[in-house]
Design goal:
Mean pLDDT: 90
Distance between the termini: 96 Å
Structural class: alpha/beta
Low-confidence stretches: 1-15
Largest sheet: 8 strands, mixed
CATH topology of the largest domain: Rossmann fold
Number of helices: 15
Order of helices and strands: HHHEHEHEHEHHHHHHHEHEEHE
Number of strands: 8
CATH class of the largest domain: Alpha Beta
CATH superfamily of the largest domain: Vaccinia Virus protein VP39
Strand content: 5-15%
Bound molecules: S-adenosylmethionine
Helix content: 40-55%
Radius of gyration: 24 Å
Shape: globular
């Protein structure tokens, strides 16, 4: 009997099929952001385990100081609320639960990539357009965003400043020094210059001022001389250049410098201080009598501006009360979510 497996005679031997390595299963302990993200989408129960271990699940953001924020804002059933920084929607959910029935919330975010994801999640949880409006908008334009949404003034306004964990952790967004990605850092990638372009064009004097003002960088003059005008295509290129510029520092000090430079450049690229100043100027005009605003800031440049604006408005009678002291996250929260550690909360009432 003919062996069906035998190759036909006189024909060329079939070359062995090229061996394609199977993609490594990344399920148990995935290391890349995309793998972690996919894994968590498949296994929602893993999310609780990740949070319990003191980490933020990939593609999520834990709301910072939620009970303290709600305590400062005192949202009530029927209130009109604005969350200037929707992010992953943690604070928005907390406020919505307090203002229903009867209330409405307008949520802004400048990020065109994350906003639709969070909106879809909130809609799936049952928050319809009758209670939740979302708008891709910079909070610098809060009065225009209110007008466009048919809201004259709000009872409650929140701004949770800076970037979300989704933005920070995703290497493709170019915020993190921990893994290689394009050096971008824009919350709204459709607007302005990517960080790589900004660094290529910036002059040393401007970079020195940026590093000092935005991150209190002690080595601002040296780093500005070395980095200004440089070509850094990836986040890891920039991090390496910062480390190389400080060869005599301890490794921990070098890493702190990397973090400060990244923060300073991010603030510059997104024009974060001018947006915050515009919001602070607009706030008294956007609140109903008795209305409250709360702002969570994450570094001294932000907190200084919030404190000064609130104190000035209080002195001039545009706010009737402001928080006396800054409010900080509890040690338990800082342990569970280290990103809460630098947070400072201030509130004001009109
Ligand atoms: C710290 S996260 C907010 C997290 C959110 N509170 C939560 O619980 O998930 C900050 C968010 O504000 C957005 N953002 C930052 N600056 C902004 C601005 N000037 N205008 C509008 N959104 C801004 C960022 O894109 C980011 O999504």
């Amino acid at each position: 009997m003919k062996n069906p497996a035998a190759p036909p005679q006189h024909s060329e031997p079939t070359p062995p099929a090229a061996h394609r390595r199977r993609a490594r299963y990344a399920g148990k302990h995935p290391r890349r952001f995309e793998d972690k993200y996919k894994e968590l989408q498949k296994n929602p129960e893993t999310i609780a385990q990740v949070i319990a271990s003191g980490k933020t699940p990939a593609g999520a953001h834990l709301p910072v100081m939620l009970p303290e924020v709600l305590d400062a804002l005192r949202p009530e059933a029927g209130s009109v609320a604005v969350d200037c920084t929707l992010g992953h929607g943690g604070h928005t959910r907390g406020i919505l639960q307090r203002i229903l029935p009867g209330g409405r919330l307008l949520a802004l975010d400048t990020d065109p990539l994350e906003l639709p994801r969070t909106e879809a999640a909130l809609r799936a949880e049952g928050f319809g357009e009758d209670v939740l409006l979302t708008r891709k908008s910079n909070f610098a334009g809060l009065p225009a965003a209110l007008a466009a949404s048919g809201i004259s003034r709000a009872d409650v306004i929140l701004a949770d400043l800076g970037v979300s964990s989704m933005q920070l952790d995703n290497p493709a967004r170019g915020f993190t020094m921990k893994s290689a990605g394009p050096l971008d850092m824009r919350m709204n990638p459709a607007r302005g210059l990517a960080a790589s372009q900004w660094l290529e064009r910036v002059r040393p004097a401007e970079l020195e001022a940026t590093l000092a003002d935005n991150a209190d960088e002690p080595d601002a003059p040296l780093l500005a001389r070395i980095l200004a005008g440089g070509t850094f295509l990836t986040t890891t290129d920039l991090a390496a250049a910062i480390r190389n510029a400080l060869p005599n520092r301890l490794p921990l000090e070098r890493e702190k410098a990397v973090r400060r430079v990244f923060q300073a450049v991010r603030i510059a690229v997104n024009e974060e201080f001018s947006a915050l100043e515009a919001l602070l100027r607009a706030l008294p005009l956007c609140l109903n009598p008795g209305g409250r605003v709360a702002i969570l800031s994450f570094h001294s440049g932000e907190d200084r501006r919030v404190k000064k604006a609130f104190q000035t408005a209080f002195r001039e009678g545009r706010f009737t009360a402001i928080s006396q002291d800054v409010i900080r996250a509890s040690p338990d929260e800082c342990r569970a979510n280290p990103r809460a550690t630098p947070a400072k909360l201030r509130w004001a009432r009109i």
